[in-house]
Specification:
This protein is an alpha/beta fold and 279 residues long. The chain folds into 2 domains: 161 residues, Rossmann fold (3-Layer(aba) Sandwich), CATH 3.40.50.720; 72 residues, ProC C-terminal domain-like (ProC C-terminal domain-like fold, Orthogonal Bundle). The chain contains 12 helices and 8 strands. It is elongated and about 65 Å long. The two termini are 31 Å apart. The structure holds NADP nicotinamide-adenine-dinucleotide phosphate.
Amino acid sequence: MTGDMRLGVLGTGHMGQALLRGVISRGGVAAERVIVADVRRDVCDALAGELGVRIAADNDELVANSDVVLLCVKPQVLFAVIAPVAERFGPDTLLVSVAAGVTLGALERAVPAGTPVIRAMPNTPSLVGAGTSAWSRGRAATTRHGALAQGILGAVGVAYEMDESALDAVTAVSGSGPAYVFHLMEAMMEGGVKAGFDPALVREFVLSTVSGAAALAAASDVDPGELRRRVMSPGGTTEAAIRQLDDAGFQTAVVRAMGAARDRSVEMARAFTSSAPSK
Ligand SMILES: NC(=O)c1ccc[n+]([C@@H]2O[C@H](COP(=O)([O-])OP(=O)(O)OC[C@H]3O[C@@H](n4cnc5c(N)ncnc54)[C@H](OP(=O)(O)O)[C@@H]3O)[C@@H](O)[C@H]2O)c1
């Protein structure tokens, strides 16, 4: 089903490119059925040269030539991007937004009544086919539209349909989540070098350790807490390290950080909903 659609990717930044590359390489969508638009024409030119996608002259041409419009612009500009092309939407054009904090209700009010809308929350590992996404259907989106969204997001990782009320928590866990892990990796690289590790090799060791730990956790039937305890022998090196993390409030800080991400998502949804134009 995904293979038959004409896909328009509006906004070819980090997330737009991740999804675009995924659907072409793994989602069974032919590059010639994909059209892209971005204010950064150089990026579109590079994508057309590399992947063979078509470039729309403008956003209007993109929407007019798409069965599914994947809207991948920043939430702050989203309504200004939709407004001039809103009339191009309708029952035959599915709008999939990946914008954090922009609700289905606000999206539905920005396009003509009856337009199927899906709100998705992907993450950047989608770029390497290891994404984690959740998506929710608007009032006019049918199971067929859901299957199209699942086809796009599932091409770049795992994807789940969820109630929209869950998306703020999804943002805190998987949307922003890669940044928490990258932050840990930054700290481990700094700590490794300070501990005397070869700076030329530290990145490789940290990457391999983090991906190895994730693979072990995925393959285990015990939770990460038990896996951590299995590394910690009494009086040993890991126990000394974990004591430092506990003294610094590591777990509390992570829990608070995720609460802040969730709260910000709620706050953004409120702000964008109150500023969203109505058709
Ligand atoms: N990055 C993540 O981890 C992540 C995770 C989940 C969801 N998201 C969502 O994904 C969306 C995109 O995020 P991103 O990180 O990919 O942002 P990004 O890299 O800035 O990409 C957005 C692209 O849209 C372009 N653009 C701006 N105005 C436009 C217009 N009028 N017409 C066409 N293109 C326009 C931007 O150009 P300029 O740079 O010149 O403005 C940029 O190339 C956001 O809504 C975000 O909430 C991102």
